[in-house]
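Subject: for your reference before the review

Hello V.,

The reviewers asked for a structural picture of the protein, and I figured it would be easier to keep everything in one thread rather than splitting it across files. Below is the amino acid sequence we used in the manuscript, unchanged from the supplementary table.
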Amino acid sequence: MKYNFDKPTDRRNTYSVKWDVGEGELPMWIADMDFETVPEVTAAIKVTAERGIFGYSTLPDEYFESVADFWEKRHGYRPDPSWMIYSSGIVAAISSIVRKLTAPAENVLIQAPVYNIFYNSILNNGRNVLSNDLVYENGEYRIDWDDLEAKLKNPQTSLMILCNPHNPVGKIWGRETLAKIGELCKQYGVTVVSDEIHCSLTAPGKNYVPFASVNDICADISVSCVAASKTFNLAGLQASCVIAKNPVLRHKVWRGINTDEVGEPNVFAVTATVAAYRHGGEWLDELREYLFENRRFATEILAKEAPKLYVVPAEASYLLWVDVSAYTDDSEAFAKDLREKTGLYVSDGAEYGHGGEKFVRINLATQRKNVEDGMRRLASYVASL
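And here is what came back from the structure prediction:
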């Protein structure tokens, strides 16, 4: 491999959210990576830093063109740059969209267990969470279509937040599934916000389907949120892109993002994002190989040393979703005790809503020696129960 993802990195005492932990603790929780980013990104940031001036930044056409080019090359779909709006982050964009496209006390539909911050974006804005819980059956997840239609049909339901691919279960939604979601939402007047932040971190040989690419219905009723942040480890630079083909939707989203003042880039955001999309392809291909080898490696250790734990098969992301129901139905207590006794810090599944109470989420985007250390800590802990 050209890039060395085993290279040690020391993030302690660097104001890292992930690594601001106790001595001897191993953080495998929040979703960022312990790898150095694409070298061309670092070089672009250095050029900007060496100017020594950090004033207000504009948004050049190159920013949106780099998004369009990347999606066309990697995902077979080219959104028009004129459909795009800058936002300082996908969470910021989703919160703004919830405020702008829904009214207080209306329902925003999600599919639990799902990214925990969705709940904040809904509840903090005075809207109701309505969950079409995913069905966990035979070790895999599927959609309950009857329940989904019933909840979309509710006249109080005005927005659906789709996680595509799904976090934390790592599922890639197929074209037929997405088309059916689009048809139901169109039928009942529900707008779809598709969070596609994990879309480029798919298993080697697999790709995801952009929701808006499925058909004209999906494109017309949706707003897609994309970013380089998860893919290239740039979350701290706070840059994302919101895509809406429908001009009425796009105008409303644009007004919301600007009203909330989350539509201006910091001085490094544009150059770093463009460099990642323009030069990061080979790096990304090798990263995906490394991440899914980490997944295979972790699953193999747990199968051998903690066979009562079940790792849910995943096609996307660097997150391991582990069924701990053989030991507990209280993942919050499990994760807390695991950290106290072994120093392994993982996310408890209850954070992700109903259906997550018997799971933990583990971030595998770290050096393989850390993956081995973490899995052995987990195996030794469950052996003691």
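For the response letter, the relevant points are probably these. The radius of gyration is 20 Å. The chain has 13 helices and 15 strands.

Happy to draft the paragraph if you're swamped.

O.
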